[in-house]
Amino acid sequence: MSKTHVVCAACNAKNALPEGRLGDNPLCGKCKSPLFTAHPVELNTAGFERFIAGNDLPVLVDFWAPWCGPCLSMAPAFEQAASALEPAVRLAKLNTEDEQMIGAQYGIRSIPTMVLFHQGREVARQTGAKMAGDIVRWVRSQPV
Ligand SMILES: [Zn+2]
What is the DSSP track for 57-105? Predict the structure, then answer.
């Protein structure tokens, strides 16, 4: 059976899970944290590349900032989308005010912007606040 690599958001360890076990609430082999919590994980500059490239699963990143009203209004929708899409897709947030280098590196010009990555590569992006159902449908319509 093939293995799926999943990066732990708590300690950055890369776990190799049998594909059929993703839905069984797997724990990180190193720190024992749950790998999937049905909540978006917070990324920072140090862990960003490893998280988007080290996961075999697609990673949807919400680029946001605390001063951005539409970002804050979309936050509950993004939470809901996380519980709908995990464990097939991992959802993460990147605070572009705290981590400006990452925002610049990925050409984030307005927020909120959602970028879907697969194995470190950008697959799709869209800008503007969305409802949970729209986020889920958009992600599921992408070729990953
Ligand atoms: Zn861990």
Answer: S-EEEEEE-TT-HHHHHHHHHHHHHHHHHTTTSEEEEEETTT-HHHHHH
Q: Average pLDDT of 81-99?
A: 97
**Residue 118: which residues within 8 A CB-CB, separation 6 or more?**
58, 59, 144
Q: Which of 116, 96, 114 is nearest to 105 (CA)?
A: 96
Q: What's this model's pTM, rounded to 2 decimal places?
A: 0.96
The tens digit of pLDDT for each residue in 9-47 reads 999 999 999 988 999 999 999 999 999 999 999 999 999
Distance from the alpha carbon of residue 15 to the mean position of ligand 1, in angstroms: 8
What is the Å distance from ligand 1's center to 51 Cα? Answer: 12
Please say if 11 is a catalytic residue.
Answer: no
Å from CA of 133 to ligand 1 middle: 30
Annotated active-site residue 71? The verdict is: yes
Q: In the numeric block, which tokens belong to residue 94?
A: 């990147």
Q: List the shell of residues around ion ligand 1, using CB closer than 5 Å.
A: 8, 10-11, 13, 28, 30-31, 33
